[in-house]
Amino acid sequence: MPHEVNSNFIIMISLTMRRNMPLTALTRCLCSTCGNVSKEVLEQLEVGYKKLMKSKSKSLLKKHLTKEIFDRLKCKMTPKYCSTLLDCIRSGLCRHESGVGIYAPDPGAYKTFAEIFDPIIESYHTGFKHTDKHPATCFGYGSDFPNLDPEQKFIVSTRVRCARSVEGFPFNPCLTKRNYKDLECLIKKPLRALCNEHAGSYHTLGCMDSDDIQKLVDAGLLFKGKNRFLKSANALRYWPTGRGIFINKTCTFVIWVNEEDHIRVIALEKGGDLGRVYERMIVGVESLAHSLKFSRDARLGNLTFCPTNLGCTIRASVHIKLPLLASNRRNFLELAKKHHLQVRGTLGEYSQALGGIYDISNKRRMGLTEYEAVAEMHKGISALIEAECEESRKTRK
């Protein structure tokens, strides 16, 4: 037995040197070889779990991670990348203000830790049960969705994005510095072939001027890199290595590389022409799919770092002013919930509605095709605008 352990140790050291594997990953793999989660990890889990249960957290993690489930999962590891329960819930244990509190460090985590992921997925995606299966991809046509606000009275801008993960790579917490660089190189190749309105240029974050970065962040075109939840989840390691942004000439089509997910495809423009924006995103993501193979699960659909983005991964959103409707916040949120919409501040989750401008998007991404998700959002935003108009008519009377 000692001879076996030493042999495994030598093999793992060799792999570490060749793959630029961080020490923590080496430790996890060695523990997996010996069949145990390390004592240090178990101690962090126990301490963190007790604090979470005593906290006032309203996260889905706290709601669903019972002591029985916790005890059954705390000694498990994913088969390929040796991820532990701590790798999944680290952010939720550190950030009690989290709404969800769990991430998948690698694709295998959704199966290894299904006992906690499944109920959280069902809660967030409104009824997608562990026995349900996500449908096949179906984008449909953007032309089916007329302009939500042709007179430009309410909607400031429209954005549609989807997330993709490249097959053969884990997610942020397990990515090495070499992985980030390899992923960036792999993704950049098909970007060069984009043409017509999608044609643009790629910018590596580490080579960009700080002023240019801030201008893009202020314009809502670039990620900030300072998200406290991602940081707590070990998703910002080696920053800014391997991160970058592709922008077309008119700034209406953007691709984020290695931020939260390997790829974020984003289409946007001023006004409320959801159909045109959606069509631009479709062409972009399908162009990439010709050259890249994406991670997909037979049951969960497209696999992503955060379980809130699984399935079709579509987030269709508008920046919109609804002053009369929003004056009664309770009714406003109830109507949004009825239509499966998520209401955020102007700058996203946990931000304020600056100038009365809200970011409103579809919430459900599982059990729906891409087309159905956008249709649900289109119908919901139309209902909110109609409710705002009704409040205006009441005021005039």
Task: Give an account of the 3D structure.
This protein is α+β, with helices and mostly antiparallel strands and 397 residues long. The protein is 43% helix and 14% strand. The chain has 15 helices and ten strands. It has helices at residues 2-19, 23-34, 39-54, 60-64, 67-73, 85-94, 109-112, 114-124, 177-191, 210-218, 228-232, 274-289, 323-326, 329-338, 370-396, and strands at residues 155-164, 200-204, 244-248, 253-257, 263-270, 296-297, 301-302, 315-321, 341-344, 357-362. Strands 2-3-4-5-1-8-10-9 form an eight-stranded antiparallel β-sheet. The protein has a two-stranded antiparallel ribbon with strand order 6-7. The longest helix is centred in the C-terminal third of the chain and has 27 residues, at 370-396. It is globular. The N and C termini lie far apart (86 Å). Mean pLDDT is 90; it is low at 1-24 and 30-34.
> What is the percent of helical residues?
40-55%
Mean pLDDT: 90
Distance between the termini: 86 Å
The main pleated sheet reads as: 8 strands, antiparallel
Order of helices and strands: HHHHHHHHEHEHHEEEHEEEHHEEH
| Poorly predicted ranges | 1-24, 30-34
Shape, principal axes of CA atoms? globular
Judged by helices, strands and strand pairing, the structural class is: alpha+beta
Oligomeric composition of the shown chains: single chain
Number of separate strands: 10
Q: For the CA atoms, what is the radius of gyration?
A: 22 Å
- Number of DSSP helical runs: 15
The spatial strand order of the largest sheet comes to 2-3-4-5-1-8-10-9
Approximately how much beta-strand content do the residues carry?
Answer: 5-15%
